Each structure stands twice: as C-alpha cells, then as structure tokens.
Amino acid sequence: MMPRVKICCIANEQEAASAISFGASSIGLVGKMPSGPGPISDADIERIARSVPPPVATFLLTCEQTPQGIIEHHLRTRTNTIQIVDELEGRDYASIRASLPGVKLVQVVHVFGEESVDEACELAEHVDAILLDSGNPKLAVKELGGTGRRHDWRLSRRIVETCGKPVFLAGGLNADNVREAIETVHPFGLDLCSGVRTNGQLDRFKLERFFESVNFV
Asked: What domains are there in the chain, each with its CATH number?
C-alpha cells in the first residue's frame, strides 16, 4: 500500500482544498507554537476543519501539555484528530479519551537516538498513531516541528517495525527524497510542510511532483 499523505501548515480553505485535490488524506492545522511555521488562530482552524469533507482527517497540532489544556484547545477547534507535539503531563491520555470519545490521538516523538525507539513504543500503547519528527523540545525556545530537517531514518524504521501502531514520518521530506524515505522506513503515512511550499505558500507544482514521486514507488 502507498503511504497516506498529510499536508501540514494549512493556512486557509483554498490550501486545504488544493492539498486534498492532489491526494492528501489528511491536513495539519497548526495552533499557537513557541516556534516554527504555519500557526493560525483557533477560529481559523475551526473554520477550515468544517470545510473539509469526510473521510479526510483534520489534525489539530497543539503544544498544550496538560489533558485539560488539550481538551479545551480541541473544543475551540473541533478537528477529528489531535496531534500532541510535546510531552503529555503524566501521560494521562485516558482523561483526553474520556472527554473526547471518537477523536483520534497522534503523539509526536522527536527522534534523537536509541532512546526514541523505546519512547515511541511506550507511548504507542496510549494513542492511535505515532508521528516521528525532527524537532527539539529541550531547547530554550522549543522546536516542536516544521524544522525541515531529516533525522536518522534507520531509527524510524525500527519504530515502524516494533511499536505496533501506524507511524507517520515527518522531517525534511520532499519530492527528491520521498522514494528513499518510503523504501527505508515503510511508514503508514508521510507528513510535510516546507517540502511543498515556496515562500511560505503552498506550491501546486511541488505538490504535483511530490505525489508523482509517492505514487511512482
């Protein structure tokens, strides 16, 4: 099966429609972040999410770290999926599920080294999918995604093979390296932002090249 594609940092209804028209099965809507591209207001996220037809998934990217903060963020935006980009306090996913039944949970793991493999497998027990990215939440100003950097895909492959849940691969993907990414990692899904943008704007030519590369594998 070809991996599913999530186009992130969607800024408006037109970008959402364009991404979906090329074959995106999900879109990412970025809430307030300490750094990185693409944040939009909660009102914009809610409006864009309402415009997206099923079965396309709408991901709220939230940097909230408490269950209550994540629940309240979702209630303002009403997406069908929550992407938790930082560590969840107390790993209390049960409280989120109890308050938001039916909403899918995706946990981001920023891949540094061997410890990331163990972390992903532990967190996978609590969520519907894992998303592997190349940020650094340990910096003074946290990087929680959108860096455009690759991490060690050999580690990503091990996570795919051992965690038991669908795995999305993010970090530095573009039309020129996506075939290598698929062949190396065998991810369930691919997630990208800057790889299909020019000067911050969604680029239809880059979208077309990316999906051609994915479908050629």
From this structure: 4-216 (3.20.20.70)
